[in-house]
Amino acid sequence: MEGDDKFKLAPHPKLPKGKKLMLIILDGWGEQIPDEFNAIHRAQTPIMDYLKTTAPEKWRLLKAHGAAVGLPTEEDMGNSEVGHNALGAGRIFKQGASLVDTSLESGAIYEGDGFKYVKQALPNGTLHLIGLLSDGGVHSRMDQLQMLLKGSAKQGFKRIRVHVLTDGRDVADGSSLKFVQMLEDTLGELRQDGCDAQIASGGGRMRVIMDRYENDWNVVKNGWDAQVLGEAPHRFTSCLEALKKLKEDDPGLNDQYYPPFVIVDESGKPVGPILDGDAVVTFNFRADRMVMLAKALDHEDFDKFDRVRYPKIYYAGMLLYDAELNLPTHYLVSPPQISETSGEYLVHNGIKSWVCSETVKFGHVTFVWNGNRSGQFSDTLEKYVQIPSDQGISFDKNPEMKAIAIAEKAAEAFRSGEWDQVILVQCCFLITKMNHV
């Protein structure tokens, strides 16, 4: 690949050829109002303080939210996916949230091939919508779900079931009750218009469905059992009852960690398992925490857990979640087309890169960094190293995650002299460790 004129880079004006570079990405680090609610402001950060005060002329603040990373408005907070897309590509692309907004507002979403595919479930099939109930704008948005519900009913769906995932991560813990009530109000309007619309199952995002990078398939299995099989440890007659009762039983329970539950009718029968002939849409626009479920729904030869039953359905994602894997096969909105990323440029110029993170962050600096593309550009010029994340341990119990292990691996790679560039992504603990390299 080396030598392609399209990718030829001019010599850097300040960095001489052969100079080694380490790029450390601190996910979640930023500057905001320095008050008692600002964790970074309150934390002891001697290395960052030293870098900022000793070389202020080199200290730069970059926007990582809103239009600066392709989001709809300045009110939209950034996230790992859009940030790493922008860093890896070196330019701004209109992101999923903006594309979905435009498609819903214009009605184009209902004219595309994806929704036409889903409509093959008519006239008798149920439409199932699966995704995060939130207005955080990181993975999904409440207003988009409400528009999709109303639009789908107008398109002819007379039976709709929603499988909710509670947030408490991108929005305040405890806000799930508000969002469920908003959803119930919308579903009530649809019922008045003759559409049988109900919530069918639920659970917290970290316990149900929204794992990523194949860290823990049990999280996806929890969702499959509830949503497809109609089986879960807890059964309630309404979602609001479920959230309130589970919280009463465990007052310290965070919205992220609600256990899976199923909504049942008066006879105790689940109101909405996914069956043959139904349509399914995962309405999250962000890819990383939908890919695993998409594989389970889309791949007949799936073998990560026993699905028990694999219904013949019409499945579409809100967007194409993985362009390299063409996953899912059908989607409602075309994603941003990101090409000519930094990794591709470096490979074409013979630059050797070593990349590392732990499982739950690994795709950020590989898949997302490379423009939502799986795999490496070169097996000889790139090396991707994944440190397995701990399973079943919440981040509040283990906030350092695998920072030390990643730092040690990165130091070893840097000292080896084999690599022109070392890239790693983790939390702020890395800086303290890297000071000793």
Automatic annotation (TrEMBL):
<comment type="pathway">
    <text>Carbohydrate degradation; glycolysis; pyruvate from D-glyceraldehyde 3-phosphate: step 3/5.</text>
</comment>
<keyword id="KW-0324">Glycolysis</keyword>
<dbReference type="GO" id="GO:0005737">
    <property type="term" value="C:cytoplasm"/>
</dbReference>
<comment type="similarity">
    <text>Belongs to the BPG-independent phosphoglycerate mutase family.</text>
</comment>
<feature type="domain" description="BPG-independent PGAM N-terminal">
    <location>
        <begin position="101"/>
        <end position="322"/>
    </location>
</feature>
<keyword id="KW-0413">Isomerase</keyword>
<dbReference type="InterPro" id="IPR036646">
    <property type="entry name" value="PGAM_B_sf"/>
</dbReference>
<dbReference type="InterPro" id="IPR006124">
    <property type="entry name" value="Metalloenzyme"/>
</dbReference>
<dbReference type="Pfam" id="PF01676">
    <property type="entry name" value="Metalloenzyme"/>
</dbReference>
<dbReference type="GO" id="GO:0010037">
    <property type="term" value="P:response to carbon dioxide"/>
</dbReference>
<dbReference type="GO" id="GO:0004619">
    <property type="term" value="F:phosphoglycerate mutase activity"/>
</dbReference>
<dbReference type="GO" id="GO:0006007">
    <property type="term" value="P:glucose catabolic process"/>
</dbReference>
<feature type="domain" description="Metalloenzyme">
    <location>
        <begin position="19"/>
        <end position="424"/>
    </location>
</feature>
<keyword id="KW-0479">Metal-binding</keyword>
<dbReference type="GO" id="GO:0006096">
    <property type="term" value="P:glycolytic process"/>
</dbReference>
<dbReference type="GO" id="GO:0010118">
    <property type="term" value="P:stomatal movement"/>
</dbReference>
<dbReference type="InterPro" id="IPR005995">
    <property type="entry name" value="Pgm_bpd_ind"/>
</dbReference>
<dbReference type="InterPro" id="IPR017850">
    <property type="entry name" value="Alkaline_phosphatase_core_sf"/>
</dbReference>
<dbReference type="InterPro" id="IPR011258">
    <property type="entry name" value="BPG-indep_PGM_N"/>
</dbReference>
<dbReference type="Pfam" id="PF06415">
    <property type="entry name" value="iPGM_N"/>
</dbReference>
<keyword id="KW-0464">Manganese</keyword>
<dbReference type="GO" id="GO:0030145">
    <property type="term" value="F:manganese ion binding"/>
</dbReference>
<protein>
    <recommendedName>
        <fullName>phosphoglycerate mutase (2,3-diphosphoglycerate-independent)</fullName>
        <ecNumber>5.4.2.12</ecNumber>
    </recommendedName>
</protein>
